[in-house]
């Protein structure tokens, strides 16, 4: 069977280890001896609550974060967060500051721009997004609500290899395609989000 498997290295859904798929397959019809699939169990049932809480704790453990951080599972993917962030955090007096390093960073900025609460603090658009703006290119307004970065740009093949210094302005990051791909000091970020399909 393994010889027939295709290895998909796309930046979206990709190949999972066969043992993970076999475990999921075995539990699909009878999850934890409940007599039901996890897909049939109420989101309020103790069997699901245990899965939910373990997933949250696993993420915090992998990121080295304590109980002063919260993990949320939200619908809509990262693209919904492009709008939710400025709607919840930015104002005209305290706009969101955006570092443009690729198409997803630009899409995030456009959502704040629609609301009149976004500003660009650095951009590599004029050079075809061939690099991530470096620290000395960032012109951060100390009055900003946050600084937003897209940590990895799959379309352009660029990735942050440093954590921006924001001088006390909260640092927000879209880490959809590289969260947990390597050790990072996640304590330096105030808000991280990622689309689960990545």
Provide the CATH superfamily of the largest domain.
Answer: Type I PLP-dependent aspartate aminotransferase-like (Major domain)
Mean pLDDT metric: 92
The rough form would be described as: globular
From the alpha carbons, calculate the radius of gyration and give it in angstroms.
19 Å
How many separate structural domains?
2
The percent range for strand residues is 5-15%
Characterization of the model:
- With 198 residues, the protein is an alpha/beta fold.
- It has helices at residues 18-28, 46-63, 77-89, 103-114, and strands at 96-100, 118-123, 146-150, 152-153, 158-159, 171-174, 191-193.
- It folds into 2 domains: 2-63, no CATH class; 77-193, Type I PLP-dependent aspartate aminotransferase-like (Major domain) (Aspartate Aminotransferase, domain 2, 3-Layer(aba) Sandwich).
- It contains 4 helices and 7 strands; from the N terminus they run αααβαββββββ.
- A 5-stranded parallel beta sheet has the order 2-1-3-6-7, with helices on one face. Strands 4-5 form a two-stranded antiparallel ribbon.
- β1, α4 and β2 (118-123) form a beta-alpha-beta unit.
Quick structural overview:
This protein has four helices and seven strands. The chain is α/β, with parallel strands linked by helices and 198 residues long.
Considering the chains and any ligands shown, give keywords for the structure.
alpha/beta; five-stranded parallel beta sheet; single chain; globular; 2 domains; Aspartate Aminotransferase, domain 2; 198 residues; 27% helix
